[in-house]
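DATA SHEET
Item: assembly model
Revision: 1
Owner: S.N.
Input lines:
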Amino acid sequence: MGDIEGSPGSSMHGVTGREPVLAFSVASPIVLTDPTAKFDLPVDSEHKAKVFKLFSFANPHMRTFHLSWISFFTCFVSTFAAAPLVPIIRDNLNLTKGDVGNAGVASVSGSIFSRLVMGAVCDLLGPRYGCAFVIMLTAPTVFCMSFVADASGYIAVRFMIGFSLATFVTCQYWMSTMFNGKIIGTVNGTAAGWGNMGGGATQLIMPLLYDLIQRFGATPFTAWRIAFFIPGWLHVIMGILVLTLGQDLPDGNLGALQKKGDVSKDKFSKVFWYAVTNYRTWIFVLLYGYSMGVELSTDNVIAEYFFDRFDLKLQTAGIIAATFGMANLLARPFGGYASDVAAQRFGMRGRLWTLWILQTLGGVFCILLGRSNSLPIAVTMMIIFSVGAQAACGATFGIIPFISRRSLGIISGMTGAGGNFGSGLTQLLFFTSSQISTAMGLTYMGIMIVACTMPVTLVHFPQWGSMFLPPSRDVVKGSEEHYYVSEWTEDEKQQGMHQGSVKFAENSRSERGRRVASAPTPPYATPNHA
Amino acid sequence: MGLSAILFVASILLSSFALSCYASGTFSALEKSLLVTSSPKAGHVLKAGEANITVTWSFNKTFQAGTDSTYKTVKVKLCYAPISQEDRAWRKTKDELKKDRTCQHKIVSRPYSPSTNTFTWTIERDIPSATYFVRAYVFDAEDKEVAYGQATDAAKKSHLFEVEAITGRHASLDVASVCFSVFAIVSLAGFFYLEKRKAGSSMQK
């Protein structure tokens, strides 16, 4: 029992940018428990859980958590299911390296669009139906693999399966309706990290299934098609579970409850404007493309790379590739944690340095992975690379909530889309052409990671400084209030719409590091989610 | 001083042996002492799982007698022609035999005999669609390549034939696929409709 004090807890409320911004402002750092509610876990006044009990399946909070992350995990499994089987698929469909590369690009591109749309869908239909719609409607695309006969069909099907990664948005949105702001960071980080593990688990699962099906007598070119039925069934099973066992809100479902009308909705155009005109947004869009983006790219190429370069069996290559994605279990939360620890001493500067160090380290070890000629060294380099890149993802979302209070949702969404875009671009540049071997591709990708992480040095907060520059000495400009309230016009301030930002500004003083003598424990501290 | 000099010389000798072992693991070091022919006419398209290839091989008598004293086993393989290696680095030809990926499919393995050997092979169902030629490697008692022969010329342009692979698709798979897809969509629509109706009727109450 008891709150998880001082640990990550920033709201992803507003992940779509369309939610009411002022809907829940935690009045004080101490969140009162609603004594009249009859839930398994202690809840606040909105009936959101205040405690995160990992191994419970109690309805509705923890049940939602497990439904949510397993759905997201399933979509990662199906999106990257082809990757470890490429050595078989490329022979069956007579693919060239260009075809394989283009399919990889396609697999991550679809969700750029679907993630942006999913925000609106969650607002309209609720996260339960958002999740169920995506996962059930992409199930036929997974089953479609049995029809694929050539390169264009393969690329098209991988593109369509990629839409399912929109479950990231439903996952984070659903968590924010069920869990209080103080712990939402841990909850979202765990859910996203465990979902991302699907990209690793699939590298293990698919070759094993393929081998099993072959033992039952199927020829290789049929066996891989049958193997795809398993991710397809998982989609259907999770869709049904979400529909039957899930609910949108702690008190019930969206359609059955009456919506409360006493919160003011923010205007999408305004929220969008403040997101795109803040230069920090774009720097983080680029950065996330080279932490999350390279993770997705590597999920697509690493099994084939080990199979070809070191002459391994399909299953062995799959096991090695799986360790890359499975590191998410701990690496991503670690990144968020490291960011929080650095912030306690050095404030925002500590967070920026932590991000830079982790992401650059990832890049360096990616270069070394490409240049490794022996298997044990290559595996070691790959593991360190995976920890660096995934921890950087966690550290990124330690900073994102501070870029803007008003536009947090859209900025998070744009950053997520940037991750996919970076992945598509990297695969197009380095893993599609026959002129560049996969080993050289990995080396170039590592160089690009190091180069594209440099812009984090440019991120400057007037109230906290940047990696090299101190904060502004001006009394007004150097205050947190000035930064966050400047997102509102005079008219809006007159209507009192900016109160949430004022509160957030007060609580964000912790980002000054040890300069703050007595800052209250912020309700919106650092999330280590993605 | 004397001992270290001996060790130094020994290590030089050992490494030179190792290097010579390495050098002999190349394709260009092999003797082309086998005559190999394959049955498909140039440009022929053969169906995997159905068509046959007949391969014959024998020792090329123009070589000195005794050249084949170390020959123990012959492995006949199906090899990719240059056109099927384009843009596919996983089929690349390399001189170092350990790294060479030209010949990935084994047809047959037989003990060596200098007279004419014949083998008829039904193309297996996991052979991909590509253009091929036939090559036979000869191995010594230590299972190292010592010689070869191939049914095509040195530029790998003549006597090439195509194999058309099975698709791997089956009608039963297609049907199952459609059934499960329809189930997914129908159950989603069904749930949605039922819940909307329940919400509607509860609001009317």
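QC remark: The domain at 19-164 of chain B is CATH 2.60.40.1930 (Immunoglobulin-like).
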